[in-house]
Specification:
Layout: H1 4-8, H2 30-38, H3 41-52
Domain Cyclic nucleotide-binding: 1-53
Organism: human gut metagenome
Protein name: Regulatory protein YeiL
Length: 53
């Protein structure tokens, strides 16, 4: 995941990311989607697993 910290802490400083293989990058406007995503427990499971390790 890229941006999982920004979902929780909107003041987090952005970082540069480089893909090592072809991929898709989906950018969501946080102003609209942040409240929805923070209330979606199914969505939050995956990034929280990465944050705990």
């Amino acid at each position: 995941f890229i941006g999982e910290i920004e979902l929780i802490d909107k003041d987090h400083e952005p970082r540069a990311v480089q893909a090592i293989e072809e991929c898709w990058c989906l950018a969501l406007p946080m102003k609209h989607y942040r409240p929805l995503l923070l209330n979606d427990t199914l969505f939050l499971r995956k990034p929280l697993r990465h944050l705990k390790s």
